[in-house]
Amino acid sequence: QKEPEAEAGRLEQLSVKKLRVVLFALCSSTEQAAEHFRSPPRRIQRWLRRFQALQDEPPAPSEGKYLSLEAEEKLAEWVLTQREQQLPVNEETLFQKATKIGRSLEGGFKISYEWAVRFMLRHHLSTHTRRGVSHPLPKEIQGNAGAFIEFVQRQIHAQELPPAMIAAVDEISLFLDAEILGSDDRKENALQTVGNGEPWCDLVLTVLADGSVLPALVISRGRPPAAAALPACVLLESKESGYGDDEIMELWAARVWRKHTECQRGSKGMLVLDCHRTHLSEEVLAVLSAAGTLPAVIPAGCSSRIQPLDVCIKRSVKNFLQKKWKERARELADSGCDSAALLQLLLGWLGEALEVIRDSPDLVRRSFLVASVLPGPDGDAGSPRRNGDVQEELIAALEEQLKLGKNRDSPGKFPRNDDATGDPEILHRLFEGESETESFYGFEEADLELMEI
Protein backbone atom coordinates (compact mmCIF):
# COMPACT_ATOMS: atom_id res chain seq x y z
CA GLN A 1 0.00 0.00 0.00
CA LYS A 2 1.33 3.39 -1.01
CA GLU A 3 2.29 5.83 1.72
CA PRO A 4 -0.18 8.78 1.65
CA GLU A 5 2.68 11.10 2.62
CA ALA A 6 4.68 10.08 -0.44
CA GLU A 7 2.42 11.64 -3.05
CA ALA A 8 3.74 12.12 -6.58
CA GLY A 9 6.96 10.27 -5.77
CA ARG A 10 8.04 12.85 -3.19
CA LEU A 11 8.87 11.77 0.36
CA GLU A 12 7.85 14.13 3.13
CA GLN A 13 9.91 14.65 6.26
CA LEU A 14 8.71 12.71 9.28
CA SER A 15 7.07 14.72 12.06
CA VAL A 16 8.78 15.17 15.41
CA LYS A 17 6.42 12.61 16.97
CA LYS A 18 7.37 9.97 14.41
CA LEU A 19 11.07 10.77 14.62
CA ARG A 20 10.94 10.36 18.36
CA VAL A 21 9.44 6.90 18.01
CA VAL A 22 12.05 5.96 15.39
CA LEU A 23 14.86 7.18 17.68
CA PHE A 24 13.51 5.02 20.51
CA ALA A 25 13.44 2.01 18.16
CA LEU A 26 17.06 2.62 17.10
CA CYS A 27 18.23 2.98 20.71
CA SER A 28 16.40 -0.12 21.97
CA SER A 29 14.10 -2.04 19.63
CA THR A 30 11.07 -1.71 17.39
CA GLU A 31 9.17 -4.03 19.73
CA GLN A 32 9.80 -1.82 22.75
CA ALA A 33 9.09 1.37 20.80
CA ALA A 34 5.77 -0.15 19.74
CA GLU A 35 4.91 -0.91 23.35
CA HIS A 36 6.09 2.46 24.67
CA PHE A 37 4.24 4.54 22.09
CA ARG A 38 1.32 2.17 21.46
CA SER A 39 2.09 2.10 17.75
CA PRO A 40 2.16 -1.01 15.51
CA PRO A 41 5.71 -2.30 14.86
CA ARG A 42 5.15 -2.36 11.09
CA ARG A 43 4.26 1.31 11.12
CA ILE A 44 7.47 2.16 12.99
CA GLN A 45 9.51 0.10 10.52
CA ARG A 46 7.80 1.95 7.66
CA TRP A 47 8.75 5.30 9.18
CA LEU A 48 12.35 4.14 9.55
CA ARG A 49 12.48 3.02 5.92
CA ARG A 50 11.03 6.35 4.82
CA PHE A 51 13.65 8.24 6.81
CA GLN A 52 16.43 6.08 5.35
CA ALA A 53 15.16 6.98 1.89
CA LEU A 54 15.75 10.64 2.80
CA GLN A 55 19.25 10.01 4.16
CA ASP A 56 21.03 11.31 1.08
CA GLU A 57 19.36 14.72 1.32
CA PRO A 58 21.42 17.32 3.24
CA PRO A 59 19.82 18.91 6.33
CA ALA A 60 17.94 22.15 5.65
CA PRO A 61 19.87 25.34 6.55
CA SER A 62 17.20 26.30 9.09
CA GLU A 63 17.98 23.24 11.19
CA GLY A 64 20.76 24.97 13.07
CA LYS A 65 24.26 24.01 14.05
CA TYR A 66 25.16 20.37 14.43
CA LEU A 67 28.18 18.57 15.79
CA SER A 68 31.34 18.26 13.72
CA LEU A 69 32.27 14.81 12.45
CA GLU A 70 34.99 14.61 15.12
CA ALA A 71 32.47 15.48 17.87
CA GLU A 72 29.97 12.98 16.47
CA GLU A 73 32.63 10.28 16.57
CA LYS A 74 33.22 11.05 20.26
CA LEU A 75 29.48 10.68 20.83
CA ALA A 76 29.42 7.40 18.88
CA GLU A 77 32.29 6.10 21.05
CA TRP A 78 30.24 7.02 24.12
CA VAL A 79 27.21 5.06 22.81
CA LEU A 80 29.36 1.98 22.19
CA THR A 81 31.04 2.08 25.62
CA GLN A 82 27.68 2.63 27.38
CA ARG A 83 26.28 -0.45 25.69
CA GLU A 84 29.33 -2.52 26.56
CA GLN A 85 28.62 -1.79 30.21
CA GLN A 86 24.86 -2.39 29.86
CA LEU A 87 24.18 1.24 30.75
CA PRO A 88 21.16 3.06 29.25
CA VAL A 89 21.39 4.64 25.81
CA ASN A 90 18.10 6.41 25.24
CA GLU A 91 16.76 9.77 24.16
CA GLU A 92 17.50 11.41 27.50
CA THR A 93 21.07 10.17 27.95
CA LEU A 94 21.93 10.68 24.26
CA PHE A 95 20.65 14.27 24.19
CA GLN A 96 22.39 15.13 27.44
CA LYS A 97 25.73 13.79 26.22
CA ALA A 98 25.32 15.49 22.83
CA THR A 99 24.54 18.80 24.53
CA LYS A 100 27.65 18.55 26.71
CA ILE A 101 29.79 17.97 23.64
CA GLY A 102 27.93 20.65 21.68
CA ARG A 103 28.43 23.39 24.26
CA SER A 104 31.93 23.95 22.94
CA LEU A 105 30.53 25.02 19.56
CA GLU A 106 30.58 28.72 18.86
CA GLY A 107 27.00 29.93 18.69
CA GLY A 108 25.60 26.92 20.46
CA PHE A 109 24.27 23.53 19.42
CA LYS A 110 20.72 22.82 18.36
CA ILE A 111 19.44 19.34 19.13
CA SER A 112 16.72 17.87 16.95
CA TYR A 113 15.22 14.44 16.58
CA GLU A 114 16.08 14.48 12.89
CA TRP A 115 19.75 15.03 13.75
CA ALA A 116 19.62 12.25 16.39
CA VAL A 117 18.11 9.69 14.00
CA ARG A 118 20.60 10.66 11.28
CA PHE A 119 23.43 10.30 13.81
CA MET A 120 22.34 6.80 14.91
CA LEU A 121 22.05 5.60 11.32
CA ARG A 122 25.20 7.34 10.05
CA HIS A 123 27.32 5.66 12.71
CA HIS A 124 25.59 2.26 12.44
CA LEU A 125 24.43 2.40 16.06
CA SER A 126 21.03 0.75 15.63
CA THR A 127 20.58 -2.34 17.79
CA HIS A 128 18.66 -3.89 14.86
CA THR A 129 21.78 -4.74 12.88
CA ARG A 130 22.82 -8.35 12.48
CA ARG A 131 25.91 -7.28 10.53
CA GLY A 132 27.70 -5.08 13.08
CA VAL A 133 31.16 -6.47 12.26
CA SER A 134 30.84 -5.19 8.68
CA HIS A 135 30.57 -1.56 9.80
CA PRO A 136 33.60 0.56 10.71
CA LEU A 137 33.98 1.89 14.23
CA PRO A 138 34.63 5.58 14.94
CA LYS A 139 38.05 6.45 13.54
CA GLU A 140 40.06 6.54 16.78
CA ILE A 141 38.75 3.29 18.22
CA GLN A 142 38.87 1.61 14.79
CA GLY A 143 42.64 2.10 15.02
CA ASN A 144 42.65 0.61 18.52
CA ALA A 145 40.63 -2.37 17.28
CA GLY A 146 43.07 -2.95 14.42
CA ALA A 147 46.07 -2.87 16.76
CA PHE A 148 44.33 -5.32 19.13
CA ILE A 149 43.55 -7.78 16.33
CA GLU A 150 47.12 -7.59 15.04
CA PHE A 151 48.50 -8.21 18.56
CA VAL A 152 46.18 -11.15 19.26
CA GLN A 153 46.80 -12.90 15.95
CA ARG A 154 50.57 -12.38 16.26
CA GLN A 155 50.61 -13.92 19.75
CA ILE A 156 48.46 -16.88 18.71
CA HIS A 157 50.87 -17.59 15.83
CA ALA A 158 54.12 -16.93 17.71
CA GLN A 159 53.15 -18.90 20.83
CA GLU A 160 51.39 -21.62 18.82
CA LEU A 161 48.39 -21.36 21.12
CA PRO A 162 45.97 -24.29 20.80
CA PRO A 163 42.31 -23.38 20.11
CA ALA A 164 41.30 -25.10 23.38
CA MET A 165 43.35 -22.47 25.26
CA ILE A 166 42.05 -19.38 23.43
CA ALA A 167 39.05 -18.16 25.41
CA ALA A 168 36.61 -15.27 25.39
CA VAL A 169 34.93 -14.36 28.68
CA ASP A 170 32.23 -11.76 29.33
CA GLU A 171 29.40 -10.99 31.71
CA ILE A 172 25.68 -10.45 31.30
CA SER A 173 24.15 -8.48 34.16
CA LEU A 174 20.47 -9.01 34.91
CA PHE A 175 18.40 -6.43 36.78
CA LEU A 176 15.20 -7.41 38.59
CA ASP A 177 12.87 -4.51 39.35
CA ALA A 178 10.88 -5.45 42.46
CA GLU A 179 8.62 -2.39 42.07
CA ILE A 180 7.49 -3.43 38.59
CA LEU A 181 7.18 -7.02 39.77
CA GLY A 182 4.79 -5.91 42.51
CA SER A 183 2.74 -3.57 40.30
CA ASP A 184 -0.52 -4.40 38.56
CA ASP A 185 0.87 -4.42 35.04
CA ARG A 186 4.04 -4.63 32.92
CA LYS A 187 5.42 -7.51 35.01
CA GLU A 188 7.14 -8.82 31.89
CA ASN A 189 9.41 -5.76 32.04
CA ALA A 190 10.68 -6.54 35.55
CA LEU A 191 13.69 -8.46 34.17
CA GLN A 192 16.04 -6.16 32.27
CA THR A 193 19.54 -6.26 30.82
CA VAL A 194 20.23 -2.54 31.05
CA GLY A 195 20.42 -0.63 34.31
CA ASN A 196 22.26 1.86 36.51
CA GLY A 197 21.82 0.08 39.82
CA GLU A 198 23.13 -3.08 41.42
CA PRO A 199 22.42 -6.15 39.26
CA TRP A 200 20.25 -8.94 40.63
CA CYS A 201 22.80 -11.40 39.27
CA ASP A 202 25.71 -11.65 36.83
CA LEU A 203 26.23 -14.46 34.32
CA VAL A 204 29.87 -15.02 33.39
CA LEU A 205 30.07 -16.83 30.05
CA THR A 206 33.20 -18.47 28.61
CA VAL A 207 33.69 -19.95 25.13
CA LEU A 208 36.78 -21.45 23.49
CA ALA A 209 38.13 -21.13 19.96
CA ASP A 210 37.83 -24.91 19.50
CA GLY A 211 34.04 -24.55 19.81
CA SER A 212 33.74 -25.62 23.45
CA VAL A 213 31.64 -23.86 26.08
CA LEU A 214 32.93 -23.81 29.65
CA PRO A 215 30.48 -23.82 32.59
CA ALA A 216 28.75 -20.50 33.16
CA LEU A 217 29.30 -18.92 36.56
CA VAL A 218 26.19 -17.25 38.00
CA ILE A 219 26.85 -14.68 40.71
CA SER A 220 23.74 -13.94 42.76
CA ARG A 221 23.24 -11.12 45.24
CA GLY A 222 20.68 -12.54 47.58
CA ARG A 223 19.46 -15.73 49.19
CA PRO A 224 20.34 -18.85 47.15
CA PRO A 225 17.65 -21.37 46.22
CA ALA A 226 17.26 -24.08 48.87
CA ALA A 227 19.14 -27.18 47.72
CA ALA A 228 19.38 -25.79 44.20
CA ALA A 229 19.54 -28.45 41.50
CA LEU A 230 21.94 -26.86 39.03
CA PRO A 231 22.19 -27.70 35.33
CA ALA A 232 25.48 -29.50 34.59
CA CYS A 233 26.86 -26.48 32.71
CA VAL A 234 26.07 -23.87 35.43
CA LEU A 235 27.97 -22.97 38.62
CA LEU A 236 26.37 -20.79 41.31
CA GLU A 237 27.91 -18.41 43.84
CA SER A 238 25.40 -16.64 46.06
CA LYS A 239 25.82 -14.26 48.97
CA GLU A 240 23.31 -11.95 50.69
CA SER A 241 25.75 -9.01 50.76
CA GLY A 242 26.70 -9.46 47.11
CA TYR A 243 30.10 -9.50 45.43
CA GLY A 244 32.44 -6.82 44.17
CA ASP A 245 33.53 -6.78 40.53
CA ASP A 246 37.02 -8.01 41.41
CA GLU A 247 35.53 -10.86 43.50
CA ILE A 248 33.43 -12.00 40.53
CA MET A 249 36.45 -12.48 38.30
CA GLU A 250 38.44 -14.08 41.13
CA LEU A 251 35.66 -16.63 41.59
CA TRP A 252 35.58 -17.23 37.84
CA ALA A 253 39.37 -17.64 37.66
CA ALA A 254 39.35 -20.15 40.53
CA ARG A 255 36.23 -22.16 39.64
CA VAL A 256 36.22 -22.08 35.83
CA TRP A 257 39.57 -21.17 34.28
CA ARG A 258 41.94 -22.90 36.70
CA LYS A 259 39.92 -26.10 36.45
CA HIS A 260 40.00 -25.95 32.64
CA THR A 261 43.74 -25.23 32.36
CA GLU A 262 44.61 -28.09 34.73
CA CYS A 263 43.24 -30.44 32.06
CA GLN A 264 45.34 -28.88 29.29
CA ARG A 265 48.77 -30.17 30.44
CA GLY A 266 50.50 -26.83 30.78
CA SER A 267 49.60 -25.35 27.37
CA LYS A 268 49.91 -21.61 27.10
CA GLY A 269 46.67 -19.73 26.59
CA MET A 270 45.00 -16.41 25.89
CA LEU A 271 41.95 -14.81 27.45
CA VAL A 272 39.99 -12.19 25.47
CA LEU A 273 38.01 -9.87 27.75
CA ASP A 274 36.78 -6.28 27.81
CA CYS A 275 38.34 -3.41 29.74
CA HIS A 276 35.34 -2.59 31.95
CA ARG A 277 34.88 -3.40 35.62
CA THR A 278 37.82 -4.78 37.57
CA HIS A 279 38.64 -7.83 35.50
CA LEU A 280 42.34 -7.82 36.31
CA SER A 281 42.87 -7.72 40.07
CA GLU A 282 46.15 -9.06 41.46
CA GLU A 283 44.45 -12.34 42.36
CA VAL A 284 43.06 -12.79 38.84
CA LEU A 285 46.42 -11.95 37.27
CA ALA A 286 48.09 -14.49 39.56
CA VAL A 287 45.72 -17.27 38.42
CA LEU A 288 46.21 -16.34 34.75
CA SER A 289 49.98 -16.16 35.16
CA ALA A 290 50.14 -19.53 36.92
CA ALA A 291 48.11 -21.01 34.07
CA GLY A 292 50.36 -19.40 31.42
CA THR A 293 47.42 -17.35 30.17
CA LEU A 294 47.93 -13.98 28.52
CA PRO A 295 45.08 -11.49 29.09
CA ALA A 296 44.10 -9.74 25.85
CA VAL A 297 42.09 -6.67 26.87
CA ILE A 298 39.70 -5.36 24.21
CA PRO A 299 39.92 -1.54 23.85
CA ALA A 300 36.87 0.43 25.08
CA GLY A 301 34.07 0.69 22.54
CA CYS A 302 35.31 -2.19 20.35
CA SER A 303 33.55 -5.21 21.89
CA SER A 304 30.65 -5.24 19.42
CA ARG A 305 33.14 -5.96 16.61
CA ILE A 306 35.96 -8.02 18.18
CA GLN A 307 34.55 -9.85 21.22
CA PRO A 308 33.55 -13.36 20.01
CA LEU A 309 30.77 -13.56 22.61
CA ASP A 310 29.29 -10.29 21.29
CA VAL A 311 29.09 -11.48 17.70
CA CYS A 312 25.90 -13.47 18.28
CA ILE A 313 25.96 -15.48 21.51
CA LYS A 314 25.33 -12.87 24.21
CA ARG A 315 22.49 -11.12 22.37
CA SER A 316 20.75 -14.46 21.74
CA VAL A 317 21.15 -15.58 25.37
CA LYS A 318 19.70 -12.24 26.58
CA ASN A 319 16.76 -12.54 24.21
CA PHE A 320 16.15 -16.16 25.22
CA LEU A 321 16.12 -15.34 28.95
CA GLN A 322 13.79 -12.39 28.39
CA LYS A 323 11.48 -14.50 26.23
CA LYS A 324 11.30 -17.17 28.95
CA TRP A 325 10.68 -14.50 31.59
CA LYS A 326 7.90 -12.86 29.58
CA GLU A 327 6.17 -16.22 29.13
CA ARG A 328 6.09 -16.79 32.89
CA ALA A 329 6.22 -13.29 34.41
CA ARG A 330 2.59 -12.66 35.32
CA GLU A 331 2.05 -16.16 36.64
CA LEU A 332 5.24 -15.98 38.75
CA ALA A 333 4.49 -12.55 40.14
CA ASP A 334 0.87 -13.42 40.95
CA SER A 335 1.99 -16.52 42.83
CA GLY A 336 4.27 -14.41 45.02
CA CYS A 337 7.40 -16.13 43.75
CA ASP A 338 10.42 -14.91 45.72
CA SER A 339 13.85 -13.99 44.39
CA ALA A 340 15.41 -17.37 45.27
CA ALA A 341 12.68 -19.26 43.37
CA LEU A 342 13.09 -16.90 40.40
CA LEU A 343 16.83 -17.55 40.45
CA GLN A 344 16.17 -21.31 40.32
CA LEU A 345 14.09 -20.79 37.17
CA LEU A 346 16.75 -18.54 35.64
CA LEU A 347 19.42 -21.20 36.21
CA GLY A 348 17.26 -23.71 34.37
CA TRP A 349 16.69 -21.35 31.43
CA LEU A 350 20.40 -20.53 31.23
CA GLY A 351 21.15 -24.26 31.24
CA GLU A 352 18.77 -24.72 28.28
CA ALA A 353 20.47 -21.95 26.29
CA LEU A 354 23.97 -23.24 27.05
CA GLU A 355 23.06 -26.78 25.99
CA VAL A 356 21.95 -25.44 22.60
CA ILE A 357 25.22 -23.49 22.23
CA ARG A 358 27.30 -26.47 23.35
CA ASP A 359 25.61 -28.53 20.65
CA SER A 360 26.75 -25.93 18.08
CA PRO A 361 30.57 -25.97 18.30
CA ASP A 362 30.93 -24.75 14.71
CA LEU A 363 28.92 -21.62 15.58
CA VAL A 364 31.24 -20.91 18.52
CA ARG A 365 34.37 -21.48 16.40
CA ARG A 366 33.08 -19.20 13.64
CA SER A 367 32.34 -16.47 16.19
CA PHE A 368 36.10 -16.25 16.85
CA LEU A 369 36.75 -15.97 13.11
CA VAL A 370 34.08 -13.32 12.53
CA ALA A 371 35.45 -11.29 15.45
CA SER A 372 38.90 -11.54 13.79
CA VAL A 373 40.44 -12.99 16.97
CA LEU A 374 41.49 -15.93 14.81
CA PRO A 375 42.83 -15.46 11.28
CA GLY A 376 40.80 -17.10 8.54
CA PRO A 377 41.84 -20.34 6.80
CA ASP A 378 43.91 -18.32 4.29
CA GLY A 379 45.78 -16.63 7.16
CA ASP A 380 43.94 -13.32 6.88
CA ALA A 381 40.87 -11.88 8.53
CA GLY A 382 37.82 -12.07 6.27
CA SER A 383 36.59 -8.94 4.51
CA PRO A 384 34.13 -6.83 6.52
CA ARG A 385 31.36 -7.73 4.08
CA ARG A 386 32.10 -11.45 4.32
CA ASN A 387 32.27 -11.28 8.11
CA GLY A 388 28.95 -9.40 8.14
CA ASP A 389 27.36 -12.15 6.03
CA VAL A 390 28.62 -14.82 8.43
CA GLN A 391 27.51 -12.86 11.51
CA GLU A 392 24.00 -12.54 10.07
CA GLU A 393 24.00 -16.28 9.37
CA LEU A 394 25.20 -17.16 12.89
CA ILE A 395 22.60 -14.95 14.61
CA ALA A 396 19.80 -16.44 12.48
CA ALA A 397 20.99 -19.99 13.17
CA LEU A 398 21.24 -19.54 16.94
CA GLU A 399 17.90 -17.74 17.18
CA GLU A 400 16.27 -20.58 15.25
CA GLN A 401 17.81 -23.19 17.57
CA LEU A 402 16.67 -21.20 20.63
CA LYS A 403 13.20 -20.87 19.04
CA LEU A 404 13.26 -17.11 19.30
CA GLY A 405 10.92 -16.81 16.33
CA LYS A 406 11.37 -15.40 12.87
CA ASN A 407 11.96 -11.73 12.29
CA ARG A 408 11.67 -10.47 15.83
CA ASP A 409 11.40 -6.79 15.15
CA SER A 410 14.80 -6.14 16.65
CA PRO A 411 17.09 -9.18 16.74
CA GLY A 412 19.64 -7.52 19.02
CA LYS A 413 17.18 -5.74 21.21
CA PHE A 414 17.91 -4.18 24.55
CA PRO A 415 15.40 -4.04 27.37
CA ARG A 416 13.04 -1.13 27.60
CA ASN A 417 14.38 2.03 29.14
CA ASP A 418 11.87 2.87 31.82
CA ASP A 419 12.61 6.56 32.18
CA ALA A 420 10.27 9.52 32.38
CA THR A 421 10.74 10.36 28.69
CA GLY A 422 8.89 7.19 27.79
CA ASP A 423 5.82 7.80 29.93
CA PRO A 424 2.80 8.00 27.59
CA GLU A 425 1.18 10.83 29.60
CA ILE A 426 4.34 12.94 29.44
CA LEU A 427 4.62 12.25 25.73
CA HIS A 428 1.03 13.36 25.27
CA ARG A 429 1.71 16.64 27.08
CA LEU A 430 4.88 17.27 25.10
CA PHE A 431 3.38 16.49 21.72
CA GLU A 432 -0.25 17.43 21.55
CA GLY A 433 -1.13 17.12 17.91
CA GLU A 434 1.41 17.14 15.09
CA SER A 435 4.23 19.56 15.80
CA GLU A 436 5.44 21.52 12.78
CA THR A 437 8.93 22.20 14.04
CA GLU A 438 11.65 19.63 13.35
CA SER A 439 13.71 20.74 16.36
CA PHE A 440 12.97 20.10 20.00
CA TYR A 441 15.31 20.59 22.91
CA GLY A 442 13.21 18.76 25.49
CA PHE A 443 15.41 19.68 28.45
CA GLU A 444 15.87 22.75 30.60
CA GLU A 445 19.45 23.94 31.07
CA ALA A 446 19.18 23.23 34.81
CA ASP A 447 18.15 19.63 34.11
CA LEU A 448 21.17 19.13 31.89
CA GLU A 449 23.46 20.34 34.66
CA LEU A 450 22.14 17.68 37.03
CA MET A 451 23.55 14.70 35.22
CA GLU A 452 27.29 14.37 34.80
CA ILE A 453 28.17 11.90 32.10
What does this structure look like?
- This is POGZ protein.
- One of its GO terms (molecular function) is DNA binding.
- It comes from Rhipidura dahli.
- InterPro entries: CenT-Element_Derived, DDE_SF_endonuclease_dom, Homeodomain-like_sf, HTH_CenpB_DNA-bd_dom.
- By secondary structure, the protein is α/β, with parallel strands linked by helices.
- The protein is 47% helix and 10% strand.
- The protein is built from 17 helices and 7 strands.
- The model is unreliable at 1-10, 60-64 and 407-453 (pLDDT under 50).
Overall geometry: globular
The structural domain count equals 2
- Secondary structure tally: strands: 7
CATH superfamily of the largest domain: Ribonuclease H-like superfamily/Ribonuclease H
| CATH topology label of the largest domain | Nucleotidyltransferase, domain 5
CATH architecture classification of the largest domain = 2-Layer Sandwich
Element string (H = helix, E = strand): HHHHHHHEHEEEEHEHEHHHHHHH
Low-confidence stretches: 1-10, 60-64, 407-453
Largest sheet: 7 strands, mixed
Percent strand equals 5-15%
CATH class of the largest domain: Alpha Beta
Query: Based on helices, strands and strand pairing, what is the structural class?
Result: alpha/beta
What would the average pLDDT be, to the nearest integer? Answer: 81
Helix content: 40-55%
Q: How much is the radius of gyration in Å? A: 23 Å
Distance between the termini: 44 Å
